[in-house]
Design a protein that fits this description.
Elements (H helix, E strand, L loop, with lengths): L1 E5 L5 E5 L4 E5 L10 E6 L5 E6 L3 E6 L1 H5 L9 E7 L5 E7 L4 E6 L4 E5 L5 E4 L25 E2 L22
Antiparallel strand pairs: 1-2, 2-3, 4-5, 5-6, 6-7, 7-12, 8-9, 9-10, 10-11
Length: about 170
């Protein structure tokens, strides 16, 4: 068993039951997700989902890490990141039978997303019928204007190199 904790810094920490820190996760995507407000996994514990105060949903694939968590080289892969709401994500869950993620926000809306690619299906209470099988139409909610960031498997974490020049450069 592994315990997960979400933090205001935007990171997730994975802990052993004995209380030892096993892994620290930070979102890879370019958009800042902000402080995390909610965590969940799917039933089979393949995905770890987090919601943020800024309205983002981040999805990690944790399968290989859980299979062999003792090996330090096993990575947790960030799979998706998208803006789901314009305000804080208050709750979320993964429904495996339909392969959807349902998010609830402090803005009062409950929205449905495709779990594999973050495509928006609609919201509870809308006038049109929810069609959960059509993933070809790429639409967004009216208050969200950026598309899902799909993180490629070969993407590597960016190491920030900071230079501190301590001499005056008159040409600059």
């Amino acid at each position: 068993p592994v315990l997960a904790s979400a933090h205001e810094s935007g990171c997730i920490r994975l802990w052993s039951v004995q209380g030892n820190l096993m892994k620290e996760l930070l979102p890879f995507s370019k958009d800042p997700s902000g402080p995390l407000t909610v965590l969940c996994t799917d039933i089979s514990t393949k995905l770890l989902l987090a919601g943020s105060r800024e309205g983002y949903v981040i999805c990690w694939n944790i399968t290989s890490f859980l299979e062999d968590s003792q090996t330090k080289k096993k990575q947790v892969k960030e799979k998706l990141c998208w803006r789901a709401h314009s305000t804080e994500v208050a709750d979320l869950f993964h429904e495996e039978e339909r392969n959807v993620i349902v998010t609830g926000s402090t803005d009062g809306s409950v929205r449905i997303w495709h779990a594999d690619n973050g495509y928006y299906f609609g919201y509870f209470g809308q006038s049109r019928k929810l069609e959960l099988s059509d993933t070809s139409r790429l639409i967004l909610p009216s208050d969200v204007n950026n598309f899902t960031a799909i993180i490629k498997e070969e993407s590597k974490a960016i190491e920030k190199k900071v230079e501190y020049p301590l001499m005056l450069d008159k040409d600059k």
